[in-house]
Amino acid sequence: MKQNPRVQLFFGLIVLLLSGCEESDPGFNIDAPGNCTVALEGDVYLASNLPSLRWPVKPHLDKAILMAATQINGGGGIGFEGSTLGIISCDTQGDIAIGVENVLALSELPLVAGIIGAARSAVTMGSTPEDNGTCKMGSSKEIVSISPGSTNDQLGLIDDDDYCYRTCASDSIQGRVQASVAETMGCTKVLYISDVDDSYTTGLMNNFIDALSPTLEGVGKEFTMDTHTADAVLAQLRSADYNCLGSSLFTKDIAPILNRISSEPDVQSLKIIVGDGAHSNDFLNALTRTTLDFLKNGNLQATKPGCTESTHLFKSRYLAIYGNEDEEFDHSAYDATLLFATAMSILDDPTDRTGIRDLLRDGKLQTGAALDFQDWAALKAEAIKEGTVNYEGAAGAHDFEPDGDVDGNIWVGEIRDGHFTGSTTYKSCWGSDGNPLQ
């Protein structure tokens, strides 16, 4: 017997909001792998495979996924039969081995049509495209994954038989925008710091350095975790006339450095650029009041993928539903859910994983006039009728390139009144060519 979708949503949201979907069992009679729980019961399933540690985006990304699932179930479910969509929520803990373990276990569950994740490039890919990350191992089991947050530009080089996609712009775009923002900020010499053991942070740093104009000098510095100290960074800053600091580090690594820098008189004029790994409420909460005051006048600019009119519509809906603002890559997780659901609705068997792969690979979800992504009933009806549809969602168009990549814009924010807001010192929306759009 199918449960009422509103009842499903109620229980799913209670589990998610109170426990973060990491430890509690909502009591549904569906088996899930050891690192997973059933967040929302259904006839067919998608699974999230996201981190609660290292880069703890799982709680809010799962909320975006449930938001999409609720929209789908409330608009008639999946396909002609109206199957309800359930969500299995898995925790990678930011670790590649756990992420792969989850993927292999999920691939053995016939009702799981696809996986939303991983979120970290270091879990999706590993250190290089040849590593056995979640993408490569999932493709070996012929299950599609769509990552909402893995931005390393080498993901497209993975030998994945077209089973891996992402709904976020790559770091080749983000690095290009960061370089343009640095030049706009008046930087002449930038020290850019990254984590030598993380493919996302080193990748974004290299993309930034490669995109710099000849008039701007950039020096990249890869730290190991043991030397991610404020003293080490200060020593580097003071070793030359750096007037800007760039960083692709995650919150736990960059926040202590900025807290120290903010109290050093000789670096008070420093301009700072951070990437999506620190563009979050967790980052803001890790900063001291002195640091927030230091950064509040546009001294810090933060980048992350996603900047369209649709993104703003999504933000408004998210705020109305949850009572708080969305965070980094929530719109991408929402879009990944709807892309899966659209493909599942076209197929006679919504759990046909190879069929889902073929629809994504062959551009069947990017054909025709774009429909309102907020109207699932109309979107599904068009998909079933035509066998194709043009899905343009909260993150914009998802016209997948042969390697599973998508184009995209970059949002640039700054800190005002203790919150991230669109940059008013410079521009808040930048295109993939590295130029501002507004």
Structure description:
This protein is α/β, with parallel strands linked by helices. The protein has 2 domains: 5-169 and 310-397, Response regulator (Rossmann fold), CATH 3.40.50; 171-305 and 408-430, Response regulator (Rossmann fold), CATH 3.40.50. Helix content is 37%, strand content 18%. It has helices spanning 5-19, 58-74, 96-106, 121-124, 134-140, 171-184, 199-211, 230-238, 251-261, 281-285, 289-295, 309-322, 330-346, 353-361, 376-386; strands spanning 36-40, 44-50, 85-91, 112-117, 144-147, 164-166, 189-195, 217-223, 244-247, 271-274, 300-305, 392-393, 396-397, 410-416, 419-422, 429-430. The strands form 3 sheets. Strands 7, 8, 9, 10, 11, 14, 15 and 16 form an 8-stranded mixed sheet that branches. Helix 9 (251-261) links the parallel strand 9 and strand 10. The longest helix has 17 residues, at 58-74. The N and C termini lie far apart (51 Å).
